[in-house]
Design brief:
Length: about 250
């Protein structure tokens, strides 16, 4: 099966960083993006609520006849992906496994220090650490950096507020990692500031790049001459989501 029409699901606008990679690949003809903006953020919800919201998102996509769905949310990938895969009539791919595989391909030294950033729920799931441990990486540290999400949502991608927040969180990890997994799709938008905190030394694992690498290795994809047609939907204020997309897709 060659996927031409795909969906992208996120708890809000963060998945636009993944959408950007999907668009620029030119491997798809149509992309339907749905953000559950009325109930964002998911990262502070219980596991049961995250699963419930994830299954409700599948109901939204029911009428679109998708070939494949990308869950562009680390929190949903950690808690809701399996439940979604069990009932969906098409393949569903999350962002965590591709992120782990991308790190494995780029960091061969299993003793490397790996810092995992994410929302509280994603870090508490320990899924990144568990999957990395299966690959032989045990020098990992998960750091919940939930304040990065509202900072990015406010359009703050650099400056004093962001730098103070980074300094506050990174004081809890007094090492220079070989790699940082940006375990929330908001975080690529502040990747430069995160990297600069460590003098640009760590390799950054970006969910959008990782999932495109995964899809290209896992599926037969066609390359189209034009960029895909993208349609945005949201559970609240779709106009705001479209405005954010216009800004973030050009960053």
């Amino acid at each position: 099966m060659i996927p031409h029409k795909i969906g992208v699901f996120d708890s809000g606008a963060g998945g636009i960083s993944v959408l950007k990679s999907l668009i620029h690949s030119r491997n798809f003809k149509q992309i339907v993006y749905y953000g559950d903006t009325a109930r964002v953020p998911y990262g502070v919800r219980s596991a049961e609520t995250i699963v419930q919201y994830s299954l409700e998102a599948l109901e939204f996509f029911k009428s679109f006849n998708l070939d494949l769905l990308v869950v562009a949310c680390n929190t949903v990938s950690a808690y809701g992906l399996k439940a979604m895969q069990e009932v969906a009539p098409y393949p569903i791919v999350g962002v965590i496994e591709p992120g782990v595989l991308a790190l494995k391909n780029k960091i061969p030294n299993k003793d490397s220090k790996i810092l995992i950033l994410g929302t509280k729920a994603t870090i508490q799931s320990k899924l990144y650490s568990k999957l990395l441990a299966k690959e032989g990486y045990h020098n990992t540290f998960g750091l919940a950096t939930s304040l990065f999400v509202p900072i990015v949502e406010e359009g703050i991608f650099s400056g004093e507020i962001l730098n103070a927040t980074i300094k506050h969180y990174f004081a809890l990890y007094p090492h220079t990692p070989e790699a940082i997994i940006l375990g929330c799709t908001h975080f690529p938008l502040i990747a430069d500031s995160i990297s600069q905190c460590y003098n640009n030394q760590p390799l950054l694992i970006h969910s959008g790049e990782a999932i495109m690498e995964y899809l290209q290795n896992s599926y037969t994809l066609k390359t189209f001459d034009d960029f895909p047609e993208v349609t945005f939907y949201a559970s609240d204020c779709v106009e705001k989501l479209e405005q954010i997309a216009k800004l973030w897709l050009t960053k």
